[in-house]
Amino acid sequence: MSTNNKTLIALDKVSSKEYPITISGNGKYAFDSKQLDASIETTDDGFSVMTINGISYPIEIVSRHQNEYELLVNGVSYLFSVETPFSLGRKKMLSAEASESTTIRLKAPMPGKILEVLVKTGDSVKAGDTLLILEAMKMQNAILASTKGTIKKVLVKEGDTTSKSDLLIELEKDM
């Protein structure tokens, strides 16, 4: 293998299974150490056909957003992203950090005034409990706990004025 090889990973968005594909400097593809002769062409009548090792498959690109694709191949839908080894490693790291984090930071959904704070640091709450009342545009909005947990920190008090996205309360999820 030459040093011009690139590896891309097709990441199945449903099963999270990884399919590494090596692209050599001369434009050849390899998957699972097997050479692939692959191409995608659009026919005169506007249909797309993917040919792999001499076998043709009708395909339709259902959606494409940045590096994420949904393809319809022979009537079967495939949802995947195309990643570099670096981007896949970063995605895994960020996912692990997000699942390890047990602190939920509740932010103001809109500018307003705090009318009432119903919890204090150390209080146990369950999902759906009202934590505080925020008045915005002459309407009272209840800010609710999204999960069962313990109030870690209350950052506002009655009478405070908040801007959109101001941090109101930190809630530690019960595990």
Automatic annotation (TrEMBL):
Keyword GTP-binding: no
Domain Lipoyl-binding: 97-172
Keywords: Biotin
UniProt entry tagged with the keyword Nucleotidyltransferase: no
One Pfam family linked to the record: Biotin_lipoyl
CDD domains reported in the protein's UniProt record: biotinyl_domain
Cross-referenced PROSITE patterns: BIOTIN, BIOTINYL_LIPOYL
Entry protein name: Biotin-requiring enzyme
Source organism (scientific name): Dysgonomonas macrotermitis
